[in-house]
């Protein structure tokens, strides 16, 4: 809206032109008005125009954001490059001692024409003018002194018509300036360096034609002894000017070239190493104790030239003497703080700085320095608990892996009921030392990229890591090729990769799972993690005496040499030292807790995969509850009908049962086992086994069992009473599962015999 408007001849002074919008004059007026208005003034103006208040609020917000952005950009520019603050501005001191303009009149014609009571005056004239401008001054920032002389001259013709009624006259006047000729000549001396740079130039400027139409209203009083004229109104109604023709006549400068390059040396003198280096070195360091989103570095060099000004430029690359990260960035001085955001390729890897000192004649000298890493991220890593639930209240275990570009200066670990800094109620914060594992990357002959996949990366894990990428996605025809592309990058740059077995897409990742980065299922992606990443530490705490049904978190606080800090937190570890609860038990004859070997709770032949949970068992924890129920209990039932006891049956080739009410509110359920015997709690007919073993998920559990075929010698059950026992095991991942066993006392009777009649009684009434 405030762009340059095209003037229309005769309407240049109008603020608005129908069909064209704002003119140049209108744009200037609008800009001046807006510059002097506050946000409140703008809001009040919009309210008067019945504007939508939501639109007004949005506009005010945008104006505020624009103001903040402009201020932030200005402050950033001042801090990062103070030498360029006034690159487009200069302090100019000058004085004008010009000769006055001289007008020469060739002729002047005046003719009054009476028109009734009015008098019409026709006036014409022609002449010439000439003069000379002379000025001297100095440009402070550019360090230049100058003197200029501009002789000029031209022809002038004019004509006017006026109508007078008594002393009041209205005048229209047209002035024409023809062939105005100027010869600006400037002498300039630059005094920033020795020898002085002297220049002399002369130009020819020709303005073929200038026209100006003006109007005024005057009051002319003619008295006998004096007369005077008072102007009541005067304005320029229209003007026209042709383009200026400018041609250089000469432009001569001393132009003495400096054939020597600037001398560069270290910014600070090292008293221990005063010998001159063959390759000049600069000094660079990343500024510590800033927010990681506003990282900066300071780079310094000493550059001297006895004849010319010296400008400093900076190139940054991932390889020495390159500029793929930052190209020809102008520095503000010999020691400059640079806040310029570097490309992603220049973070987390060694970067190399090339400082270029260039004088006015184009001669250059270079100096080199490097950073082992430019760190723009907080310390990252992963804190993995070895189990998420435990029945051993005396022990906690976890494993932390830390990856960090910079040196870690402080590492502390704490265990408590919460996350982050306040999670240290169980184990107070204490310092730890991290271990670093080196991985041998000399794999010998690996033309098919098989060794690099198996020896430098973990096995595939289903899922796709969502996090920052180390490079653009590519197509690789095997996961080994993708592993090779990752291994070719520094360890801090490529920590893992995702590979899609459907599209052969390879994603190199600059992160590992944990610390804000997680995996998710996507297409046919598999995730591989690079071995030897960062530093690691395993934590084993014993004799803890943890409370039941409490969740404990491992917290790991990391501070690096730049002051960047983060806290890694594990998932919660739940302590469960109670056996599963049962359904309704009535008239029980036995109910007690006991300690039995963990392996005795597991079906030996049926579920050997459950035996892995019998680790870290605490010998003091009562891990088994035995209940012998009574009549009216509603936990274990005979037969296939849910919650209904079958007391008698003729079916002698299978045994069925169902149960209800088992629950573990802390760790959940691992599974159920069932067995059958001639007596309560006995397993003579069928040993305990998992009736849900053939199912894939807990949601498919039926809480019932059909035992068929029955192992020999009871393939066919003889008529007798049988008793069913059900055991429920909870799903703790460490310390061994806790179990509750309910021995059902209602007999399951198999009867295929006929009734026996022994006596017949006759009764005569």
TrEMBL record:
Ranges of residues in domain Apple: 470-529
Compositionally biased spans, kind Polar residues: 254-268
Top-level taxonomic group: Eukaryota
Pfam families documented for this protein: PAN_1 (PF00024)
InterPro entries: Pan_app (IPR003609)
Region (Disordered): 254-283
Coiled coil ranges: none
PANTHER family named in the record: OS03G0226600 PROTEIN, OS10G0105400 PROTEIN
Protein name: Apple domain-containing protein
Source organism of this protein record: Mytilus galloprovincialis
């Amino acid at each position: 809206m405030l762009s340059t408007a095209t003037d229309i001849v005769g309407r240049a002074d109008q603020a608005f032109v129908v069909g064209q919008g704002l003119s140049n004059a209108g744009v200037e007026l609008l800009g001046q008005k807006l510059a002097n208005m506050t946000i409140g003034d703008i809001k009040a103006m919009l309210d008067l125009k019945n504007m939508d208040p939501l639109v007004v609020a949005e506009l005010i917000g945008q104006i505020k954001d624009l103001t903040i952005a402009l201020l932030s950009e200005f402050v950033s520019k001042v801090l990062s490059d103070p030498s360029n603050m006034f690159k487009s501005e200069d302090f100019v001191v000058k004085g004008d001692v010009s000769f006055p303009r001289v007008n020469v009149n060739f002729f002047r014609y005046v003719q009054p024409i009476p028109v009734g009571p009015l008098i019409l005056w026709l006036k014409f004239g022609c002449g010439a003018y000439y003069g000379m401008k002379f000025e001297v001054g100095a440009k402070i920032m550019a360090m230049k002194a100058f003197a200029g002389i501009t002789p000029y001259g031209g022809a002038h013709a004019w004509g006017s018509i006026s109508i007078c009624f008594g002393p009041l006259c209205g005048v229209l006047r047209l002035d024409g300036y023809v062939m105005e000729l100027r010869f600006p000549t400037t002498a300039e001396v630059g005094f920033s360096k020795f020898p002085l740079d002297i220049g002399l130039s002369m130009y020819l400027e020709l303005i073929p034609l200038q026209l100006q139409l003006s109007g005024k209203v005057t009051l002319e009083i003619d008295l006998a002894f004096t007369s005077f004229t008072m102007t009541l109104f005067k304005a320029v109604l229209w003007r026209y000017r042709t383009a200026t023709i400018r041609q250089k006549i000469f432009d001569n400068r001393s132009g003495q070239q400096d054939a020597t390059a600037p001398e560069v040396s270290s910014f600070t003198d090292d008293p221990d190493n005063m010998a001159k280096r063959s390759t000049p070195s600069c000094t660079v360091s990343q500024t510590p104790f800033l927010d990681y989103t506003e990282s900066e570095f300071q780079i310094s060099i000493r550059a001297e030239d006895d004849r010319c000004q010296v400008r400093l430029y900076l190139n940054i690359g991932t390889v020495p003497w390159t500029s793929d990260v930052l190209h020809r960035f102008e520095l503000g001085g010999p020691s400059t703080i640079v806040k310029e955001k570097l490309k992603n390729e220049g973070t987390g890897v060694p970067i190399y700085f090339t400082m270029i000192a260039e004088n006015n004649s184009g001669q250059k000298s270079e100096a080199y320095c490097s950073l082992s890493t430019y760190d723009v991220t907080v310390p990252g890593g992963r804190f993995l608990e070895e189990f998420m639930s435990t029945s051993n209240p005396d022990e906690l275990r976890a494993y932390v892996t830390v990856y960090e570009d910079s040196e870690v200066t402080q590492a502390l670990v704490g265990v408590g009921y919460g996350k982050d800094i306040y999670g240290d109620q169980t184990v107070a914060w204490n310092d730890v030392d991290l271990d670093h594992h080196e991985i041998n990357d000399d794999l010998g002959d690996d033309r098919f990229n098989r060794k690099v996949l198996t020896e430098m990366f973990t096995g595939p894990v289903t899922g796709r890591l969502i996090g920052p990428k180390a490079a653009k996605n590519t197509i690789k025809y095997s996961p080994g090729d993708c592993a090779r592309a990752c291994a070719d990058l520094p360890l801090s740059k490529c920590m893992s990769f995702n590979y899609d077995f459907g599209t052969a897409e390879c994603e190199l990742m600059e992160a590992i799972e944990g610390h804000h980065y997680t995996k998710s299922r996507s297409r046919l992606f598999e995730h591989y993690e690079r071995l030897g990443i960062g530093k690691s530490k395993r934590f084993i705490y014993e004799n803890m005496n943890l409370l039941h049904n409490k969740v404990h978190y491992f917290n790991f606080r990391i501070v690096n040499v730049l002051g960047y800090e983060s806290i890694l937190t594990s998932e919660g570890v739940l302590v469960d030292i109670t056996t599963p609860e049962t359904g309704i038990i009535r008239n029980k004859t036995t109910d007690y807790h006991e300690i039995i070997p963990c392996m005795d709770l597991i079906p030996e032949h049926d579920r050997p995969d459950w035996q892995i949970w019998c680790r870290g068992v605490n010998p003091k924890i009562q891990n088994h509850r035995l209940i012998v129920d009574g009549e009216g209990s509603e936990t274990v039932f005979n037969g296939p009908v849910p919650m209904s006891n079958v007391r008698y049956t003729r079916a002698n080739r299978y045994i069925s049962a169902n149960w209800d009410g088992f629950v573990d509110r802390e760790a959940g359920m691992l599974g159920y086992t069932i067995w059958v015997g001639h007596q309560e709690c006995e397993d003579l007919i069928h040993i305990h086994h998992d009736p849900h073993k053939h199912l894939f998920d807990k949601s498919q559990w039926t809480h019932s069992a059909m035992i068929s075929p029955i192992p020999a010698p009871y393939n066919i059950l003889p008529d007798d009473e049988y008793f069913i026992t059900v055991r429920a095991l909870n799903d703790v991942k460490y310390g061994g599962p806790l179990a509750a066993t309910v021995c059902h006392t209602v007999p399951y009777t198999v009867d295929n015999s006929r009734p026996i009649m022994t006596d017949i009684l006759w009764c005569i009434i």
